[in-house]
Amino acid sequence: MNIIFDVDGTLLDSMHVWLNPMEELFEKYNFKLSDLPKEKKGELESYSFSDMCHFIADNLATDMSFDDVIDYLKSNIEDSYKNSLELKPGIREFLDKLKEENIKMSVASSTDFKFLEMALKRLGIFDYFEFFATPDLTNLTKADKKYWEYSISKHGLEPDQLVLFDDALYAIKAAKSAGIKTIGVKDFPHNKGEWDDIVKEADLTLDQANLMNIEKIKDSKILKNNIF
Questions:
Q1: How far is 82 from 123, CA to CA, in rounded Å?
Q2: Which residues are within 8 A (CB) of 57 and not within 5 positions of it... i.e. 6 or more apart?
Q3: d(C-alpha 133, C-alpha 112), whole Å
Q4: What is the pLDDT of residues 24-62, one digit of tens each?
């Protein structure tokens, strides 16, 4: 049994560095992400950094160029990944235990690889992961079933031998459609609005990823039967 981890909101306490500057732009141009239908909201949340900048420049901040939007968002985001973002409580110990048990792990993130590399190398856990699946590396988004098929192929296992930890409804739904077992993780207040749907959709939900019993992860029969 292998594990796929989302990073932002699941391993890293980092959603604020994305949402705060974006929400400043959204507010300036009278746009509310929360007003969108769930499917459209999920689509936007799955965008890569570059895609989101294109969306903002093309649809909202029409007085700003694509490069202007990137410059506005990038300075705060890059500095945070490089210097200050931290793992959520208990995550380091959880990853250490998984590594000790020789459970293979990968990353599935909507964040560009270069940002993840900065943070995870600084935190000393970059080498814990077999590979990274990000939009800039795969040319796919987490809302796309093909994205998850890529991860399945890289792990070399059947889909139901993989477990995803993620805090986003759209990602959980897409991964499930590819046959991957899913664990929804709280990241309040950021995913509070869709938490009830995550509870319905995911095979299991947890307040924190590190609360998962590792022995149950190792028992493929338990996971196949959806009994966590």
A1: 10
A2: 64, 65, 66, 68, 69
A3: 9
A4: 888 899 988 777 777 777 778 778 778 888 999 999 988
Phi, then psi, of 131 in degrees rounded to 5: -160, 170
CB 15, CB 187: distance < 8 Å? yes
Range 36-41 contact pairs with CB under 8 angstroms and sequence separation of 24 or more? 38/169, 38/194, 38/197, 39/170, 41/170
Say which amino acid occupies 135.
P
Tell me the two tokens of residue 180.
Answer: 């991957």
Distance in angstroms (rounded) separating the CA atoms of residues 57 and 182: 34
Q: How far apart are CA 213 and CA 104, in angstroms?
A: 16
- Please indicate, yes or no, whether the overall pTM of this predicted structure exceeds 0.70: yes
Cα separation, 44 vs 32, in Å, equals: 12
Instruction: List the one residue out of 130, 126, 125 whose CA is nearest residue 96.
Output: 125
Q: Cα separation of 134 and 123, whole Å?
A: 19
Question: Closest by alpha carbon to 19, among 165, 145, 192?
Answer: 192
Token reading at 178: 């590819």
